[in-house]
Amino acid sequence: MTSKKLPLLKQKQLLNLSKPSMDKRFLQYFEATADAVYIIQAAVMVMVRNFFSIENLSFVAHDTIRDIFLNHTSELTSVRHLCIYFEDYFDKKEWQGILDSLFTDHNEYLQVTESARLHTEHIRPLLHVGRCEVDTPKNLALTFFDETGKKHRCTIKNVHRSYSTQENCDALSILSTLSIFEKDGVRHFTELAKSRFVTPEDDYDCANQEEPVKLWGINELLHQAEAAEDATEAKTETQPAPQKYAAHSNLKGKTKDELYDFLFEGVHINRLPDDEKISRTAMAMLEGTPVKNVRTRFAPEENPKEILDFLLKDWQKRLMTRETSQEEADTSEDLFRKEEIYRQRQEKQKQQKIDKALGKKGRKGKKGKNGKRKKR
Questions:
Q1: 70 and 89 in contact (C-beta within 8 Å)?
Q2: What DSSP string runs through 219-235?
Q3: How confident is the model at residue 81 (pLDDT cuts 50, 70, 90)?
Q4: pTM of the entire predicted model
Q5: pLDDT tens digit sequence for 164-221
Q6: What is the C-alpha to C-alpha distance for residues 57 and 48, in angstroms, rounded to an integer?
Q7: Which residues fall in a compositionally biased region of kind Basic residues (predicted)?
Q8: What are the helix (H) ranges across the chain?
Q9: Chain centre distance of CA 185
Q10: For residue 369, with 0-12 CB atoms within 10 Å meaning exposed, 13-18 middle and 19 or more buried, which class applies?
């Protein structure tokens, strides 16, 4: 009697298989091994891939994951810190029951998940985002340190770049909290060393000193209690929004177009949920910094939409320098609508630069179709 071959579910499969194939592979692997811990960590890697992917890889292995959390929570003690990434797999009643099974009380839940929530709560919806249409897919080349300090490389294919550098690195740093990827007993993905989009034009690099980013990972999780205490104190200091809402002085004198270009530089705000769009735009106006550099820090009882309306009116007052009144400020919805127009304009200009660099000209130029010179 021959033993059945174990289905492969390693780094290569997680970074390359399509969603239907992965759903099937996850189920086969769990049936063959009953290794719930491995399945949960593997699913987190697919979520990170989905964050960047143009494909829809959201809610990978949906039924298998639900079965594990509903019926095998006793086996998940070592990966409790990852549970926050799976909340959207369940309704509120189911999720509360799962938390009750995983943690003794709410304070333990907050302590165990503090670092993950602090660094990834703002991008968590994007781990489950659907398909993204782009003209030219990119590849994301990654370099991570292992436990010995040696560098290891891998590539996520067919990706887009729609988020800020910090958001991208926050998502990639999730991989450094996983322990299942190793060779000869040496764990990979302990710290992100370098990440780069492979495109015809220059793109971001997490090691770029002009736009520094903060990296986090397993080292922070190992000091969870201390980090949680420090984070709680810091959060208390920065949580409340000002009592009197006023646009930052950095916005003084900016026209509508200049305000828009300043706020939405380098980020596709329309890829975020509506609440996130409004919250981050309001916080950016309060702090006088681009949206890509802020995170939502409003208290639960505050209304970001109402705050944003106040800020837009305040900005409009500062902009008025003539006796005759100018038209009223754009509403937040108008700003978000303009973002798409701005993005298309930027992409068109970028494509024109690429065409120029490649020597392509139109029908009336010296070169014909596909940039080839016509024969005389």
A1: no
A2: HHHHTHHHHHHHHHHHH
A3: very high
A4: 0.56
A5: 888 988 999 999 889 888 877 888 888 888 888 876 444 555 554 445 555 555 555 5
A6: 10
A7: 359-376
A8: 11-16, 19-33, 36-52, 62-71, 92-102, 106-112, 114-120, 165-173, 218-222, 224-238, 256-263, 274-287, 304-319, 332-357
A9: 30
A10: exposed
